[in-house]
Amino acid sequence: MSVAVIGAGAFGTALAVSLAAKGPVTLWGRDTGWSESRENPRLPGVTLPANIHVTSDLAQITQQTVLLALPAQSLGGFLAAEGARLDGRNLVSCAKGIDLGTLEGPSVLIRAACPAAIVAVLTGPSFAADIARGLPTALTLACADADAAKALQHQLSTPNLRLYRTTDVAGAEMGGALKNVIAIAAGAAIGAGYGDSARAAVITRGFAEMQRLAAAMQAQPETLAGLSGLGDLVLTCTSEQSRNFRYGQALGAGRDFDARTTVEGAATARAVAALAARLGLDLPISTLIAGLAEGRIAMEQALQILLNRPLKEE
C-alpha cells in the first residue's frame, strides 16, 4: 500500500526516501521547482528514488495513509484550509511542537479538523540526514487506537526505520515538543561558554520539567522515559545537527541566527510558558527560554535567575 507525505522539507523528504524502499510514495510541497533534478535543496546530497512522485497538487494525495510533515506552527493553518479533503484517512503527525494560538499539540488540531480520521503521531530521536542515508533510526508511533497502531507500525516500518508503538499520544507529543525547548537551553549553555557540566544540568533539570508538564497533560510517565522523551532529548541537546541546539548556541554567544531556518523550540517555549501559567506549574528553564527567544531578557540575566532560585531537594 503506497503512502503520501505532505511537507517537502528535509524531514518529510527523508521520510519519503525511507518509505520508498517499500513502495511508491507521493511527496507534496508548495515549492517543487527542484523536482526534475530529483534533489531537494533542503536535503542536499540525496537523490530521490524513482518511485517518489513529487507534486504541488494536493488533489494527487489520494492515499489512505498520509504523513503530515509540516512545521508545528504551520499545521493549523494548513488544516483549516485543506483538512476536509483529508478527513477519514490515517493521518500521522510528524510535527514537534505546541501551537501558539491554541496551546494544543498537533494531534488535537488534526482531530478537530478531521474528526473521522485515524490520528497518530510519529516522533523520536532522528535527524533527516541520517534517515535519508539509510542509517538505523528508532521512533515512537503513538495512536490511541491500538489496532490502527499495529497496522501503521507494519506499514511505516522500513529497513532503517524501526517503530515502537504506544497508545499514549499526549506523552509522545509532549516529549517531542518540549525536548526542543530544552535543546535551546543546552545550546545556550554551550554558546555562552558555561561548559558541558552546565549542559548536563540543563538536560537533567529540563527533563524534570518535561515530566512535570506531561503529567499535567495526563501523559504516562514511562512514555517520557522512552524514545519520544529522553531519547529525543539526549540527541537534540548533544548534536549540532539540531537546529534548536544551534539556535541556542547563537543566543548564548550573542550571535545572529538565520531567520529562514525553522526553529520549532522558540515558538514552543512561548506556548509552554503560557501553559505553565495556566496550569500553575513551575517550569523555570522553559520560561527563561521563552524570554530569551522574545528578547525580553539577556543571557546573563537568565543565568542569574537560575542561580538565585531557592535551594531545595532534587
TrEMBL record:
Enzyme type, top EC level: oxidoreductase
Residues involved in NAD(+) binding: G7, A8, G9, A10, F11, G12, A128, R243
GO MF terms held by the record: glycerol-3-phosphate dehydrogenase (NAD+) activity; glycerol-3-phosphate dehydrogenase (NADP+) activity; NAD binding
Example GO BP: glycerol-3-phosphate biosynthetic process
Pfam families in UniProt: NAD_Gly3P_dh_C, NAD_Gly3P_dh_N
UniProt protein name: Glycerol-3-phosphate dehydrogenase [NAD(P)+]
Organism in which the protein naturally occurs: Paracoccus sulfuroxidans
Catalyzed reactions per annotation: sn-glycerol 3-phosphate + NAD(+) = dihydroxyacetone phosphate + NADH + H(+); sn-glycerol 3-phosphate + NADP(+) = dihydroxyacetone phosphate + NADPH + H(+)
Species lineage: Bacteria, Pseudomonadati, Pseudomonadota, Alphaproteobacteria, Rhodobacterales
Presence of keyword Cytoplasm: yes
Ranges where the Glycerol-3-phosphate dehydrogenase NAD-dependent N-terminal domain occurs: 3-148
